Automatic annotation (TrEMBL):
Top-level taxonomy: Eukaryota, Viridiplantae, Streptophyta, Embryophyta, Tracheophyta
UniProt entry keywords in alphabetical sequence: Secreted, Signal
Protein name from the UniProt record: Kiwellin-like
Species the sequence originates in: Prunus avium (Cherry)
Annotated family: Belongs to the kiwellin family.
Compartments where located: Secreted
Stretch forming the signal peptide: 1-27
Annotated Pfam families: KWL1
Major localisation: secreted
InterPro entries: Kiwellin-like, RlpA-like_sf
Gene Ontology terms: cellular component: extracellular region
C-alpha cells in the first residue's frame, strides 16, 4: 500500500485545499502474528523496496552445522563455515530464492567503521514461520534483516556483541 504525503497546497479564496499524492514509500505491513515462547512477533511476507542503497539491520547468524540457523541452508542445502562471507535475507528480500548465490555489498556508515564487504546470499531469514525445530526455535526475523556470518561482521570491523547494527546494502551484480 502506498503511503500518502503532503505535496502541494492550493489556495482557493480564503481556504486552503491540500492535495495528497502517493509518495515513493511503499508500506510493508505485517501479514499476521506468531506467538513464540509466550511472546507475539509480527510476521512479514514483504520487505521494504530494494533501492540503490537499502537500509537494513545487520544481525549475526551461525551458518555452521549445529548453529542457531537450524537446518541446511535454503540456497545450496549445505552448511557454511562462519568465516565465509555469507548472509541470509529477510523473506521479502530473499524473494523466493531469486537472490540465491548472488552477491550483495553491505556498507556501514563512516560514523561506525565506514567499511563495506561483498557477501553471498545463501539463505532466507524467515520473516513468517520460524519458532520451530527447523529454525532452532528462533522467532521470525524482521522484514529488514541481513543476517550475516561472523566473517561478514569481522570484515566490517564490527563488535559481534552489538547484536544489531544499521547498515545499507545493494546488489553487487
Amino acid at each position: 500500500m502506498a503511503s500518502l504525503k503532503l505535496l502541494v497546497s492550493l489556495p482557493i479564496i480564503s481556504n486552503i485545499i491540500y492535495l495528497l499524492l502517493p509518495s515513493t514509500t511503499i508500506a510493508c505491513d505485517p501479514s499476521g502474528t506468531l506467538v513464540c515462547n509466550g511472546r507475539s512477533y509480527p510476521q512479514f511476507t514483504c520487505s521494504p523496496p530494494v533501492a540503490s542503497y537499502t537500509s537494513a539491520n545487520l544481525t549475526l547468524n551461525d551458518f555452521s552445522q549445529g548453529g542457531e540457523g537450524g537446518d541446511r541452508l535454503e540456497c545450496d542445502n549445505q552448511f557454511h563455515d562462519n568465516n565465509e562471507l555469507v548472509v541470509a535475507l529477510s523473506t521479502g528480500w530473499y524473494d523466493g530464492g531469486s537472490r540465491c548465490g548472488r552477491m550483495i555489498v553491505i556498507s556501514v556508515s563512516s560514523a561506525t567503521t565506514g567499511r563495506s564487504v561483498a557477501a553471498k546470499v545463501v539463505d532466507e531469514c524467515d520473516s513468517v514461520k520460524r519458532c520451530d525445530s527447523e529454525h532452532a526455535g528462533l522467532p521470525p526475523c524482521g522484514n529488514n534483516v541481513v543476517d550475516g556470518s561472523a566473517g561478514v561482521w569481522n570484515a566490517l570491523g564490527l563488535n559481534k556483541d552489538l547484536g544489531v547494527v544499521d547498515v545499507s546494502w545493494i546488489m553487487a551484480e
